[in-house]
Amino acid sequence: MREAPDSSALSATAPRALRRALAPWLALILFLGVPPFIWPQSWLLAYLAQTATMIVFALSYNLLLGETGLLSFGHAAYSGLGALVAAQLFNRVGVPLVLLPLVGGIGGALCGLLLGFISTRRAGTAFAMITLGLGELVAAAAWTLPDWFGGEAGVAIDRASGAQWAGWSFGPAREAYALIAVWCLLACAALFALSRTPFMRLANAVRDNPVRAAAIGCYPRRIRYGVVVLSAFFAGISGTLALINVELVSAESVGMMRSGAVLIATVIGGTAAFFGPVAGAVVLTFFSVVVASVTRAWLFYLGLFFIVVVVISPDGLAGFVQRHTARVAAYGWRRCRAAYLWGAAAALLWTAAVVLAVQWAYAAQFGADEGAALVGTGALMGMGASPLGLGTTVLLLAALGGLSAHYAIRAQAHLAAMRSSATHSAGDAR
Amino acid sequence: MQSFVVNLLNGVSYGLLLFMLSAGLTLIFSMLGVLNFAHASFYMLGAYVGFSVAARAGFWSALVIAPLVVGLVGAALERWLLRRVRAHGHLAELLLTFGAAYLLGELVKLGWGLSPLSATVPAVLDGPLFTVYGAAFARYRAFMMVVSLAMLGALHAVLRVSKAGLIVRAALTHASAVEALGHNVPRVFTGVFAAGTALAALAGVIGAPLFVIEPGMAESLGSIVFVVVVIGGLGSLGGALAASLLVGCVQTLAVASNVSLGDVLSIFGTSLPAEWDALTLAQLAPLIPYLLLVAMLALRPRGLFGRRDEHA
């Protein structure tokens, strides 16, 4: 996405570039807008609302990680404290619900002003550790201190209690979801506009070479501080969206689980592209809602998926897709077909093997409730629960996966050889 | 007053336990440049493996076997995963260890279940060592201090005196020159990573009888260890020692005290709402390491003995 303005400058390709730039926005609007009209169940609305919240959260996190190169382990502090400020003001002052995310954002930004001043005293690994400490501090304080978070119960709001707005009370889940979706899109648009500003370019400079950035007269620490505050603002908005969704802000809202989740979502999605974190947020909520409703092993799968992404494609899903679309565009689908089909087969077989093995292990450790999910996956093989049959199946699947991976690697090598010969001949022609 | 001496000793023994963890972390950080986020998970793994070994072969074999097993796991992580992402920079390595922490946590739950386990102390180490004014100092805590100090002395000696230590220290600063002399630097890295994780596992085996062995123990101790490392100054072993003792003593004394926040504030002549004044220091003890971190960063951003940041 970063090079979009440059490519649109070429007038011949302008309409196509515009279409490509608009496609992700259209996909996002369709994703958030269409399903509620087709399947208006409450769990779907809850799922989409969680996704919308996580999208804003991950995008705000990417201001730090992707744009400025600051790894934070305590980002949930801003979203949770922002939501807390919003909840207290909503209960005491009676801010209109429509404007509540803005209030939460300002609350988050104020926390960013305070905590960011401490954390941006260092950069790099030390920054990561300090944010971890500050995140733990806020989380521990939320548990211990009275009347901040209302103790263990948390602070609840009744979203229908405010003044009506255009005949909407926001009590029903549909109306609340509409508000969340609109705010999500607004925040995405604002973040996109922000990512095009000169300030963010300075942040990129600080990320890439702080010494040089300091030499041209921008003070790296001040830039980092500004980014932390901006990012805390959008984190506060996302926290308030979660507050509107579940009508509760508790100590879990500032907990380390949530800080870890946004880090995982952003990295899985990819930090280099604007829409990477969006994709990551969708994947993460898929794991934490859909997979978690099927099996308690979802954290294991999420951790494994995260490691696979970091090892295979450190620039995340967005980087992976970009690289491979570029390759398909360069060689044509027919030449790449073999490599991709074998690769997909290997991935599928290995996934099946891992899922079977993990479900089996969880069933053995945690008993019958996991057994149900295991039977669901194992029934395809007709294996039941015989350990020998299951073990053989897992080994067989893994071996077949290895075989496909072997062919995939061979096809890749073939493709690479073709590329090098192609570049040679192109060089000769020039 | 009489319990103060014993509390201080308890604090020192807790601080030394923290130092065993932070020493491994610092060792890995200064060698590989990567902060091992999964360090506390290796500590937890060590406690669990030690529990299983101790149940079959006794405490003393657990003390040897668990660090070896966990060290092998750490070496495997370094060899097969960490080395692959090294080309993508330190951020990717840190993220990998972050994912590994999740995975190790789940594996521990898978292997040993969710319910807390309690490790037993061998009979020789059970009971009080001595009593000061009626307050007893546990024999096990003394043993803990001895093991920590012996381990750290051995580590120091190996790094300073032996040839292997010479190679490690040289690889730290002049990796390519050491490689040109025919030493396998990647293998040195693997060895250091394994040694660091084995230290964490040893701390796990030793610390297990003091705490409960549960899947949440990595998170509860992990962030404190990271705080210790930052307070001491990243990459400084001496700083890690000082900060560990500081955090260990302050936290232990706070837990053992029965002073309330209101009492402390009344010294300064201020007061807060009644609910806040009623909070005891013991309740606030979990916050103390992080407050120390904030204070340290406000006064001295590079930590106690840290070097100046190149791009602060």
Number of helices of chain A: 18
The poorly predicted ranges of chain A are: 1-10, 378-383, 426-430
- Output the strand order for the largest sheet of chain A: 1-2
Which descriptor suits the 3D outline of chain B? globular
Q: Helix and strand succession of chain A?
A: HHHHHHHEHHHHEHHHHHHH
Q: Tell me the Rg of chain B in angstroms.
A: 20 Å
Q: Could you name the CATH class of the largest domain in chain A?
A: Mainly Alpha
Shape of chain A: globular
Q: How many beta-strand segments of chain A?
A: 2
Number of helices of chain B: 14
By DSSP, the count of extended strands of chain B is: 2
Give an account of the 3D structure.
The complex is a heterodimer of chains A (430) and B (312). Chain A is an all-alpha fold and 430 residues long. Chain A has two domains: 34-322, ABC transporter involved in vitamin B12 uptake, BtuC (Orthogonal Bundle); 332-424. In chain A, 77% of the residues lie in helices and 1% in strands. Chain A has 18 helices and two strands. Chain A has helices spanning 4-9, 14-33, 35-38, 42-68, 76-92, 100-119, 124-144, 173-194, 198-208, 210-215, 220-246, 256-269, 276-294, 298-312, 316-331, 333-366, 368-378, 387-429, and strands at residues 155-156, 248-249. In chain A, strands 1-2 form a two-stranded antiparallel sheet. The longest helix of chain A is centred in the C-terminal third of the chain and has 43 residues, at 387-429. The two termini of chain A are 31 Å apart. In chain A, 45% of the residues are buried. Residues 1-10, 378-383 and 426-430 of chain A have low confidence and may be disordered. Chain B is an all-alpha fold. Chain B has a domain at 2-217. Chain B is built from 14 helices and two strands. In chain B, strands 1-2 form a two-stranded antiparallel ribbon. In chain B, β1 and β2 (135-138) form a beta hairpin. The longest helix of chain B is centred in the first third of the chain and has 31 residues, at 2-32. The mean pLDDT of chain B is 86. At the A-B interface, α7, α10, α12, α14 and α16 of A face α3, α4, α9 and α14 of B. Chain B: One of its GO terms (molecular function) is transmembrane transporter activity. Chain B: One of its GO terms (cellular component) is plasma membrane.
